[in-house]
Design goal:
It is a single chain. The chain has 134 residues and is mostly helical. The protein has one domain. It is built from seven helices and no strands. Helix 1 runs parallel beside helix 3. The longest helix is centred in the middle third of the chain and has 25 residues. The two termini are 21 Å apart. 38% of the residues are buried.
Length: 134
C-alpha cells in the first residue's frame, strides 16, 4: 500500500491544505497500478473527511465563531447543505467548500453512514476521473 499517497489524501481532506491529486498523478506517471492508487487515495481522502466530520460533531462550540473567514465558509457550506441536503456531500471534494461541508455535516449531526457513503462516492469519482484523464 502506498502510505505516502494515503497520508497525503488524508491530510488534504482535513482542514489542512494539501494536494493529493498531484501525488496521485505522479504515482500514475511512475507506473503505479491505477485501480490500487485510486482506491488508496479515495480511502485516505474519505478518512480525512470523516475526521473533519468528527471535528464538527464533537467540537461544535469550538468550530462556531472562530474567525470571520471560517464563519463565511461555514455559512456558505451550511446554505449548500440546507438547500441540497445529503446529495451536496457528493461535492465534498470541491476546493474551498468541500471541507467546510464535511464540518457542517458533523455540526448538524448527519447520519455518519450516509455521510461516508456519499463522500466516498464523490471522492472516488474525482480520483477515477483524474486517473482516466491521465
Amino acid at each position: 500500500m502506498d502510505w505516502t499517497l494515503f497520508g497525503s489524501a488524508l491530510l488534504s481532506s482535513t482542514l489542512f491544505p494539501g494536494g493529493s491529486e498531484a501525488l496521485l498523478l505522479y504515482r500514475l506517471h511512475q507506473g503505479a497500478d491505477p485501480v490500487a492508487s485510486v482506491l488508496v487515495a479515495t480511502a485516505g481522502n474519505a478518512g480525512g473527511s470523516l475526521i473533519t466530520y468528527a471535528m464538527g460533531r464533537f467540537g461544535r462550540k469550538a468550530v462556531q465563531h472562530r474567525d470571520a473567514k471560517t464563519d463565511r465558509r461555514m455559512l456558505r457550506a451550511e446554505r449548500w447543505f440546507r438547500r441540497w441536503g445529503y446529495p451536496s456531500l457528493l461535492l465534498s471534494w470541491l476546493p474551498i467548500v468541500g471541507d467546510p461541508l464535511c464540518l457542517v455535516a458533523g455540526v448538524l449531526r448527519v447520519n455518519v453512514a450516509g455521510f461516508l457513503l456519499l463522500v466516498t462516492v464523490g471522492k472516488l469519482a474525482r480520483y477515477a476521473a483524474l486517473a482516466w484523464l491521465m
